[in-house]
């Protein structure tokens, strides 16, 4: 008998966690992972917020993983492997993307019980989301419940998002895709707003090179121990031969390689300039990524 592939063991471990109430196993969040520096920065901000507001219920210390959701939905029972295989089949069409965490007026996006770090929507991230949705939506449950906040939206946005929920199980797909990093959640909006009023933020760029599919946790989080599959984003559109949960995927076609290469070439110079701005501000003090843990 052959050796067990470690990815299969990871998948089995994650599936077994479905019996733990915290995990919403059929709800899978397919997402972009942050770079090492971006993870450190988000963790620093999270710790600062929690120091100010101990009621923050998002914990990035081994419980939840900061991420940028591409597609979150309730998949049909027993289709986790199908979803993983579907992402593997299109992995070669998923390019590495420039990501720009943005701060409007040096502030994070705090609304209601949530605080988020906005991500600038660009063509590359839109491509990632659209490709993943198109590849996996066939396994999503149809006619899922409409989130309460959707019903409160004005027309025609409300009607469009309801249609997306019914067809794709998510209101945030295609032209409603809104990339962001969820930072904190507090049942008291006033408490959360006060905490973030003491923290200023600036733009922070990085390059997204990896993604994953994980079980969804509370408040828009993904569970650190709930990874079901992972995938690599392709540099300059080159095809990958990585195996995801033991299943090899189809190599990208020539058209996909050329298209992705041209896109990344156009973004190269812009990204180089963005990466020079790797600074942020906390309580009016200037920090750089290299000193956030000092």
TrEMBL record:
Give UniProt keywords alphabetically.
Membrane, Signal, Transmembrane, Transmembrane helix
**Annotated transmembrane regions:** 243-264
Task: Please give the InterPro entries that the UniProt record associates with this protein.
Answer: Cyclic_Pdiesterase (IPR009097)
Q: Any signal peptide, and if so, which residues?
A: 1-25
Recorded protein name is Uncharacterized protein
Where does this protein come from, organism-wise?
A: Palpitomonas bilix
* Lineage of source species: Eukaryota, Eukaryota incertae sedis
């Amino acid at each position: 008998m052959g050796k067990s592939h470690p990815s299969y063991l990871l998948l089995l471990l994650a599936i077994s966690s479905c019996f733990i109430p915290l995990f919403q196993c059929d709800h899978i969040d397919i997402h972009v992972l942050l770079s090492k520096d971006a993870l450190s920065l988000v963790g620093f901000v999270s710790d600062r917020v929690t120091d100010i507001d101990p009621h923050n219920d998002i914990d990035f210390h081994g419980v939840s993983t900061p991420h940028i959701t591409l597609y979150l939905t309730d998949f049909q029972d027993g289709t986790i492997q199908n979803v993983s295989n579907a992402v593997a089949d299109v992995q070669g069409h998923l390019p590495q993307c420039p990501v720009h965490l943005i701060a409007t007026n040096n502030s994070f996006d705090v609304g209601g019980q949530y605080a988020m770090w906005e991500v600038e929507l660009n063509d590359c991230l839109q491509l990632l989301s659209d490709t993943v949705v198109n590849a996996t939506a066939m396994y999503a449950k149809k006619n899922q419940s409409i989130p309460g906040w959707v019903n409160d939206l004005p027309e025609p946005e409300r009607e469009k998002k309801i249609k997306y929920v019914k067809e794709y199980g998510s209101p945030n797909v295609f032209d409603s895709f809104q990339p962001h990093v969820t930072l904190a959640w507090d049942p008291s909006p006033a408490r959360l707003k006060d905490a973030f009023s003491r923290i200023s933020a600036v733009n922070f760029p990085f390059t997204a090179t990896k993604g994953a599919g994980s079980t969804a946790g509370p408040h828009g989080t993904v569970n650190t121990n709930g990874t079901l599959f992972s995938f690599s984003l392709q540099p300059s559109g080159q095809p990958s031969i990585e195996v995801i949960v033991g299943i090899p995927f189809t190599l990208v076609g020539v058209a996909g390689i050329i298209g992705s290469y041209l896109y990344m070439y156009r973004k190269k110079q812009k990204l180089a300039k963005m990466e020079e701005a790797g600074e942020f501000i906390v309580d009016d003090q200037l920090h750089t990524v290299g000193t956030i843990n000092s």
